[in-house]
Amino acid sequence: MGQSLSDEVVGSKRVRFDPAMVGSDVKDWVALLKPRVISLVVFTGVVGIVLAPGHINPIIALISILCICMASGGAGAINMWYDRDIDLIMQRTITRPLPAGRVKSDDALIYGIGVSVLSVILMFLATNFLTAAILAFSIFFYSVVYTMWLKRSTPQNIVIGGAAGAFPPLIGWTSVTGSLDIFPIILFSITFFWTPPHFWSLALYACKDYGRAGIPMLPVVKGARYTRWQILIYTIILAIVTLLPVYLGYTSYIYMGTAILLNAGFIYMAVRVLSEQQTADGLSLNNDKAARYSFRFSLIYLFFLFFSLIIDHFV
């Protein structure tokens, strides 16, 4: 006789599992690591390694990159474990492995913790204590401070929680030098101030989803109009912060020109988001089309901004 179906309570709902199918697809275990998030996180860590003064053995550099990848993925899996109740409610997350019943929650938690711990141990053995400590803190910050505390308790969750995704340049830098400097802190700040306009653009067109799940995202609590203004304000602050490497003499004309063009584009996107036609209750008349474009542009923005730092470094 075949194995019978089993149930698991997720939040207030019951998810049905087929024991013969649970955990059988490698794609589900990869999906738990949030690979799309990892790619940009790892890239900013690589930039930290490249820009750091001194020399690092290529093998050690690859191990450092792997550890950043593992840490981000492990924290992502813990995030999915904790958020499985709201993922079951939100349309854009309902097909994830946990709410879809393809991976059991206990297995996902063990998986996330295991990958996270292994990344810190490996980083310590390959590089130095400071790098491993920052890596461990970044995992803790995303998994506990943001996921378990800020996300469900304050509309400023993304502002404070943005620090979680800003650590990789610091980690990459210290894996080479074993110490911190002003430049990697600026790189941290760029990612930190990039996160609110990036994520609030997503939150605008996913507002109903967040509302159903009871997540106090800014447009849910303060309204769309207020959020649009905050996107513009943080984009302007970001533009100022991105020019600090030029002002302090860390970069030259290649980065400066790229930063000016990208910032002009991002501010234009933010203005479009602000001026998007709305109904009386603040909802978009055009399905938040400008916010969707702004979200996509923000990904291109961060990639090319950091890529220009590498080009500027070698020219």
Structure description:
With 315 residues, the chain is mainly α. It folds into two domains: 1-178, UbiA prenyltransferase (Tetracycline Repressor, domain 2, Orthogonal Bundle); 181-315. The chain has helices spanning 26-32, 35-51, 58-82, 84-87, 105-126, 129-150, 157-161, 168-177, 182-205, 207-213, 218-221, 224-242, 244-247, 253-275, 289-314; strands at residues 6-10, 13-17. Strands 1-2 form a two-stranded antiparallel sheet. α3 (58-82) packs antiparallel against α5, α3 (58-82) runs parallel beside α6 and α3 (58-82) packs antiparallel against α8 (168-177). It is flat.
Brief description of this entry?
The chain is mainly α. The chain has two domains: 1-178, Tetracycline Repressor, domain 2 (Orthogonal Bundle), CATH 1.10.357.140; 181-315. It has helices spanning 26-32, 35-51, 58-82, 84-87, 105-126, 129-150, 157-161, 168-177, 182-205, 207-213, 218-221, 224-242, 244-247, 253-275, 289-314, and strands at 6-10, 13-17.
Key traits:
15 helices; flat; single chain; 2 strands; 315 residues; mainly alpha; two-stranded antiparallel ribbon; 70% helix; disordered N terminus; Tetracycline Repressor, domain 2; 3% strand; 2 domains
CATH architectural group of the largest domain:
Orthogonal Bundle
Helix and strand succession? EEHHHHHHHHHHHHHHH
- The assigned structural class equals mainly alpha
Largest sheet: spatial strand order: 1-2
What general outline do the C-alpha atoms trace? flat
User: Mean pLDDT, rounded to whole units?
Assistant: 90
The portion of residues forming beta strands comes to: under 5%
Largest sheet: 2 strands, antiparallel
Give the low-pLDDT segments: 1-5
Calculate the terminal CA-CA distance, rounded to whole Å: 68 Å
What do we call the CATH topology of the largest domain? Tetracycline Repressor, domain 2
Number of strands: 2
